[in-house]
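Supplementary Note 3. Input sequence used for the single-chain structure prediction.
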Amino acid sequence: MIPRYQKILFAILLAASLLMSMALWQLRERAHQRLIAGQDSAPTRAPEVALAEQATLLVANDSDGSLMAQLHSLPLPADPGSRARAVLGKLLDLYAAPGAAHSVPGGASSVAQVFLLPAPEIGASQAQSSDAQLAVVNLTGSFAASHPSGIETETLTVLSICNTLFANLPSVTQVRFLVDGQPRATLAGHADLTRAYLAAEAVPADKTRP
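The predicted structure, written as discrete structure tokens, is reproduced below.
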């Protein structure tokens, strides 16, 4: 004859097994529902790919201190801020390439973001469109830290960035710089990053080459 305590123990174990089975079944159902929900919310179309367009890059040359306009075909997003970042990324990729006429390490990843904001008034003597924009270029700290120091080389970098923005985004009339999201006095000890650079001060390029 089975002792009473063994019957009670068996009943407890059976009840625990049933409870565990029910809990596992519920967990399985929840996981299944989450999987179905994830499939339903997944995009049904591939993301749109930016089409290649012609961009004008104002490329610096250390040998004569000039900016040369170069035409490049590259994918340009429709969003103006992303578009600005794309053209500047290509410009800095040229500078990071071996044998560059203006050699600066870093490449496209040196441009963290480009923000486009309504441009502040620039003075009563200078007329400005109501849709004029200020481009805020946020460079990485590593780019500033590795940039060659010197008034001419730093100024060429800053002006080439400004002029490239002016050439490709007509609404941009002013450019300011941040480094790692913070104001910075100079790029690498010389070029002033505290001021706004104006399109009216753009250095004209007298030559264009593909």
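The two ends are 99 Å apart (CA to CA). Residues 1-42 form one domain.
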